Amino acid sequence: MSVSVLSPTRLLGSAAGLLQVASLLALVLLLLKAAQLYLRRQWLLKAVQEFPSPPSHWLFGHIQEFQKDQEIQQFQKWVEKFPCACPRWMWGSKVIVNIYDPDYMKVVLGRSDPKNPVLSRLLAPWIGYGLLLLNGQTWLQHRRMLTPAFHYDILKPYVGHMADSVRVMLDKWEELISQDSHLEILEHISLMTLDTIMKCAFSQQSSIQLDRKYQSKSYIKAIEVMKNLFYSRVRNFFYQNDIIYSLTPDGLRNKWACQLAHRHTDQVVKLRKAYLQDEEDLERVRRKKKLDFLDILLFARMKNGSSLSDKDLRAEVDTFMFGGHDTTASGISWILYALASHPEHQQRCRQEIQSLLGDGASITWDHLDQMPYTTMCIKESLRLYPPAPIVGRELSKPITFPDGRSLPKGIHVSLNIYALHHNPKVWPDPEVFDPSRFAPGSDSHSHAFLPFSGGSRNCIGKHFAMNELKVAVALTLLRFELATDPLQVPIPLQKLILDSKNGIHLLLKKLV
């Protein structure tokens, strides 16, 4: 009697054979991947050979050079040794060339290289492909579409909204310091700047700072979670894979935070669309000479006559909701800390503002250009503590720098604005707070000071941001005397936005 072709023996033999074939195939694929990574590393070594850096491990890169939360301090040592640019190996097959020289910056920012695609991919689930992450003609089209939202005729009335939001925050501070003069200011300022951007760009009528039921605090918390997770993901080799990351606790937290942020922005769009359903309100908005940011998006027509898709609309709203409040909150917080650290400059600013505004009951657009010393102090604070410390690019073609060194197409470069602003070759005694660096007539390189980046892709809202910084600083100094808390000195962290490891704590004293 013959043995059945489906006998257990035959099945086991076939399974073993398949297992051997699969194992061999996996080994071949592994060897091919190893060869690919080896060749990639050799190419990178050759590509950056003109740019020295401290020794790195062939697999772990410079990870041992950078202790957690000490990246800024460690990198400053590199800046002193390598004053123009320096490669940083993230791991064996990934290197980023950090540049922090004005001439180098000018060359890169004068080109149209795309944003770093790896960083863009990691950010996209959060803010989508809006103006921050777009490239090429699509970016140019969106930039041209949105530029009218920042025309000075639009920005003028915003000063009143900014002042209202700041006063609400300062009133809350008065209540809080009646019990204790110690205050962590960053969270309060984040809520205030979110309040401001909601009023100015998204037509919000009431103050979210006064609405206890409003979910803005949850939104701010979600933003903080996503910033921290992005910071850790960029530095983790295994987290680069989307599938692996989505299965980790960090990946699940990131998904939750993204959903929370998207619900917030979706609600903003939904409310504005509902408002515009009324024909009278719609016609009233259309008659405006200049449209607000959100109205421009809702009324936009692309070259083919179609309106923005819901996906593109939300991407721009997410981008500006984040960029319009978080970077500004960072800037204001660090400026107030810098002034608290230097009482002589704080007092001189206060005297200037008092002579201009009196008790500050009214602050207008025209006042903003009449506080030169305060503006100098704001700029010096932005030099020391730039809100956006790093900008990434991928070279779309070879580049040659003024000193003759070059990099090939495909290399990732980091425009390290924090390192530029603290480069002793560019700024003598860079850690010293010296507002005279920005005195009228002072001579400095056009690309030595880049708090809002530079070139064609500079921050579209830079004038809006500077106005808000001036309003916040002026009204705060009229109300409070600021001092540092010696027990809680902030530790700068170079994340997506310049953060502090332990918050920004000040001692506030109400002025009579």
From TrEMBL:
The keyword Amino-acid biosynthesis does not apply. The keyword Oxidoreductase applies. Gene3D superfamilies: Cytochrome P450 (1.10.630.10). InterPro entries: Cyt_P450, Cyt_P450_CS, Cyt_P450_E_grp-I, Cyt_P450_sf, Cytochrome_P450_Monoox. Pfam families: p450. Its main location: endoplasmic reticulum. It is found in: Endoplasmic reticulum membrane. Keywords: Endoplasmic reticulum, Heme, Iron, Membrane, Metal-binding, Monooxygenase, Oxidoreductase. Belongs to the cytochrome P450 family. PANTHER family: CYTOCHROME P450 4A11-RELATED (PTHR24291:SF39), CYTOCHROME P450 FAMILY 4 (PTHR24291). This is Uncharacterized protein. It comes from Pipistrellus nathusii.
